[in-house]
Amino acid sequence: MEIWTNVQRRQIDIFCREIGPDLNSNHQSPELQWSPPRKMSDYCLYLMSDIVSEAVLDESFETLTTEKNRFILQLVHRSYEWIGIVFQAPQIARYGLDIYLLPELARERQRLRDIFRGLLQKRIVREKAEPDIFSIYMDYKDPDTGEAFPLYELGAEALLLFGAGPDATSTSLTAAFFYLARSPEAYRKVCDEVRTAFSSVHEILPGLTLSGCHYLRACLDEAMRMNPVNGGALWREVLPGGAIIDGRSVPAGVDVGVGIYSIHHQPDYYPDPYAFRPERWLTSENSQHDVEVAQSAWAPFSMGARGSAGKPAAILQLTMSLARALFLFDMRTPADAHLASVGQGKKGEVFPRNLETEFQAKGTFSSILHGPMLEFKLREH
Ligand code: HEM
């Protein structure tokens, strides 16, 4: 875990440098103390991709600072489009029909696999002084056969971590920025909490003080409620013997699922479900019963045996990134109305696409986001 934390800290520092104002600009002019508008969906994705690539492949993609590897992130998104379709119609993949029905997506997915195989081969031959996340996979031996993972399985694992991690974490962080920038009261409370708990940005590290920032965590939980990265149904097949679901008998072999977005917007669990209300997660503001009901239906990481393997790392990454950014900077939406509206719903669209208060994500298997645009200024402290 320490390797992961060191990588996170280093990359979050770079992220904060990149979103902040140009340090060479004329600080005498109040307006020039603000950064130009930053597209947070991009910066958050760069951050999370650089963390996972460095932690897993021992080689950061450096997407925060250079353009050269950003095309890989585009390929990951295209791969999610492929998964989004195949998830609904698995026969397409089972019978190899994707090369006929989805030729471009299938080609791009193959290209992504080839890139990862190449990166992995480089990683395997490189000597490492310190073990990293991938050393665990490389050193693993099957207890029965004593054999190590073959290269194709290592490649699949690296791609799984890279596919599953950055997109999900960046969606959650981007959503938190979107809602906080539009919720003055929540923004004030979370800033007060973080800026009181720590006296220097370097103190913002995993530990009791960070995990004791309950309002910060509530903001993230609420952002993940409103924008769960996998908003659709994660299908599960009913096993032999069938199942009783909500009083109905469902035979074996049937796929069942409920969209996580729908659960997360169900008023029985979340009164006023389209409103960003971090307070709903706090027993200081609600009854224990109401908080427990909210928690019982919260499933951004899915649940059970196939729930996210990355939840603890993700929570740490999200709390550290948001706390450090809020500690260092004041933020605001741009004065330009068009820029200020990037990411929100549009009047005239169908519900809930028309909600200006909700961050709009395009669902693939994951989420494709645009915005919000935000400006940052170094805080005086
Ligand atoms: C806020 C961040 C994250 C969210 C919301 C999230 C969400 C999810 C969800 C919903 C699933 C289940 C998919 C399914 O049931 O088919 C999943 C699976 C998984 N996630 Fe995450 N995830 C996050 C971060 C991460 C990170 C940082 C990693 C590791 C780098 C990771 C690794 C995985 C893996 C390996 C699986 C597959 C587990 C399995 O099938 O056994 N996730 N994630």
UniProtKB/TrEMBL annotation:
The reply to whether Oxidoreductase figures as a keyword in the UniProt entry is yes
A single Pfam family it belongs to is: p450
Signal sequence interval, chain numbering: none
Which keywords does UniProt give here? Heme, Iron, Metal-binding, Monooxygenase, Oxidoreductase
User: What GO molecular function terms would the record report?
Assistant: heme binding; iron ion binding; monooxygenase activity; oxidoreductase activity, acting on paired donors, with incorporation or reduction of molecular oxygen
Q: What InterPro entries does the annotation carry?
A: Cyt_P450, Cyt_P450_E_grp-I, Cyt_P450_sf, Cytochrome_P450_monoxygenase
For activity, the cofactor(s) needed are: heme
Family statement? Belongs to the cytochrome P450 family.
Supply the name of the protein: Cytochrome P450
The scientific name of the source species is Mollisia scopiformis (Conifer needle endophyte fungus)
Q: What is the lineage of its organism?
A: Eukaryota, Fungi, Dikarya, Ascomycota, Pezizomycotina
